[in-house]
């Protein structure tokens, strides 16, 4: 049975977020990903495993190399979930802007 994790568990870690940013730009091998971090390669491999279990990345073997790529559809799901919070905060900031404008107009 394949272990499934919550994608938010994956993006909670700054190293995994950085890996996702790297993979958003291009497909990469584990070795080329690891070169961007001071962590040991097995640590990066563990991060890649978590990202795969969360279905945020995919791996494809080409010859002796395994290439990792971001799964855009899964990232879109996260973005759609976050959108509801963006709307709430935009509304709140708009209300704050209106309050500040009113207070500034009341000053002599």
UniProtKB/TrEMBL annotation:
Keywords: DNA-binding, Transcription, Transcription regulation. Residues 1-90 form the HTH arsR-type domain. GO terms for molecular function: DNA binding; DNA-binding transcription factor activity. It comes from the Bacteria. It holds the Pfam family HTH_5. PROSITE patterns: HTH_ARSR_2 (PS50987). NCBIfam families: HTH_metalloreg. PANTHER family: TRANSCRIPTIONAL REGULATOR, ARSR FAMILY, TRANSCRIPTIONAL REPRESSOR SDPR. This is Transcriptional regulator. It comes from Echinicola strongylocentroti.
């Amino acid at each position: 049975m394949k272990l499934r994790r919550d994608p938010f568990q994956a993006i909670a870690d700054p190293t995994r977020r950085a890996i996702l940013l790297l993979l958003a730009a291009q497909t990469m091998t584990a070795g080329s990903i690891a070169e961007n971090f001071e962590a040991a390669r097995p640590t990066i491999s563990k991060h890649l495993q978590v990202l795969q279990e969360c279905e945020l990345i995919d791996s494809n073997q080409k010859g002796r190399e395994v290439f990792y790529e971001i799964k855009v559809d899964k990232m879109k799901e996260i973005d759609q979930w976050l959108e509801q919070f963006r709307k709430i905060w935009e509304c709140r900031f708009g209300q704050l802007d209106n309050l500040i404008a009113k207070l500034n107009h009341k000053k002599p």
